[in-house]
Design brief:
5 helices, about 0% strand
């Protein structure tokens, strides 16, 4: 799991310094490569961080771009792996 999440870079630098450990843990659970171990959307919505912060927390626009970029690179990486099989 940590390997996949580290594609974002160092979690102690830049914008990540502003993100709580609890929020980072939720992100890690959502970005787990193996779907068998990844939390579901419902589990994410029930996460204590979401329950406590989602209605009032503003999402950093750069963080959102990073998440989208990670997903896009993950998607293309997966497509390339499937093509080479």
């Amino acid at each position: 799991m940590e390997k996949d999440f580290n594609k974002f870079g160092n979690l102690t630098e830049g914008d990540w310094q502003k993100i709580s450990d609890e929020a980072k843990n939720l992100i890690k659970k959502m970005l787990t490569y193996n779907p068998s171990f990844r939390i579901s959307a419902q589990e994410a919505l029930n996460d204590p961080w979401i329950q406590r912060n989602a209605p009032t927390a503003a999402l950093n626009p750069q963080l959102l771009r990073n998440i989208v970029g990670f997903y896009v690179s993950f998607f293309f990486e997966k497509c390339n792996k499937n093509k080479n099989v």
